[in-house]
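(Deposited chain)
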Amino acid sequence: MGDTWYAAPDGNPAGTGVDWDNRVDTITAMIALGWAAGDRLLAGPGVYREEVLIDGNGAAVYDAGTVTVVNESTTVTGTNDFTATPVLPGDQLFIGNFETQADGAYAAGQFTSAGANFQAGMVGYRIEVVGQGQYIIASRVDANTITLTDVNGVGFPGAGPYTYYITSGEGPYEVDSITDATHLELVKPWSGPDLTGLVYKIYRPVYLIGDVSGTETDGIGGVVRITGSDDDETTNRALGISADTDNYWMIRGFRIDTCTTSAIYGDTCTYFTIEDCVFADVDGYPVNFDDSDQTTVRRCIGMGAYSAGGVYLYSNPVSDNGQNLLENLYLDCGGDMIIIARTGGTTIKNCTSGFASYSLITTNNQTVGTGVFVHDCLLHNQCTTVGGSAALEAAVLGQIIEQYNNLFSNVLDRKVGTVGIAANSTTYPYLPSLPLMTGRTRNPMVWFAPSQWDETRDNSGLYPKNEDLFGVHNEVSQTRRSWGAIHNYATVRSTTQFYGSFAGSLYMEDAMEQQFVYPVKESWGYTVTVWVYLEANYAGNTPVMTVKQPGETTVTVVSTGAIGSWEQLSTTFTTGANLDFISVGLKSRNTAAGASVGCFFQDLNVN
């Protein structure tokens, strides 16, 4: 990471922004300061009544050789020297394609490419054959040969040669450390399949962060709000954040509302990531990017975009290989939830729709072969066929290819003749967890997580899920995962297994995590303990207890994994300065299937 710059609504217009005491008063003023690629621009809690103007670029850092990645591992192995440039902590690793060549051909039921390195981990992914259509990779024959499934019935390609892309469907991964010349560690584990020989890019973004925890700004925390209104009664601005020909940015942690056009708008931008944001009461599309590639929007909520929709990506001329990703989004909009126009190579995964007047996911003005891959999503409550609308609506057959999606309570699930039905998609009722109304009390729960009756909470998916809308990383196996934006959090109280004189315990039937927030005193010593018990068939990584403090290193205590006996996990630590809470996580990391694969937690103490 580079230097840090500061802004807050109560800042000094003449401030230097170099520290909190000299913070400037607007985010736009902070962006106008002398930052460099890799720097962090921190906005303290409060209300910013401005249109934030992005101006400037991060930087590309390194792309020599190829890399190897392993599912659920944070280690990346390269063929060249990461220390030569060097790569630094805070840089971003981006793998846009698993494979792309210009020599594809189809004959005798097989797709071949002499320059390819087809691998077993690519099975189940989408291959986009430019000018022909999209297909699912059904099997790998060898490094140069695969078989395809034509889900949409567009017909198989011919002799070729064809340009093709196997898009990764992965966004950028932050680099945590460089172990040696050929190994680096990521902050979060790789969620895709095991693959080797991948082309990549490492870049150094500019970080624009809303410091909701307050640990690096005011010491208190709160919502960091950008609004298009000057009085919270009328709308005065079209945009919340805008960018024009700006590249390599990470935008995180903002609430943006009351804009007439978009919460975030970008034109001709690349490598833009928007994460952990909430958009509300935007008349147009909360997120709108034109002529922009490598756009990632993840872990965001969009509400109340009544006249347009949720996310709109558009390219002119057509982009065959945009490498865009929409992931872990909850969108409750009045128009089209997601529109992809003239932009191929886009992946939409683990998203949940709220309510939409028109289509949930739609493509228009696409050319043949510039497609959208939709998987592991919950798509429900599409409510009209006006203009040909449907939950999945493509303008031309083959533009949308889908699998592992649940479509329910839609006027029309798929536009007839444009979207084929995947064999592994379902039509189960949408049964999320809802509040327990018990009179003058509020029971803790995760809204809209799959309830115990929801058939999509324990299902097969394209691959094991990495994290959800709340950033929780579930290590559940590929055949026991949740679709949609939110994981399975269905813990229950057990009275059949408990320690000592206690009458019950918290039971996790599979891999999942529960987090508990405790008020604490700053710079004070605490001990956290909990008892854990593993069922007879529990397997995989053992349960853990984590203690997280904003701005501090996470403390992790790992169970020994003894089956059938109670074990106490314990850690002693000192809280950081200007800190008034900690988050304690209890996590099962089971990977086994079947019965008796859970674990029990009991007697969590912070003292």
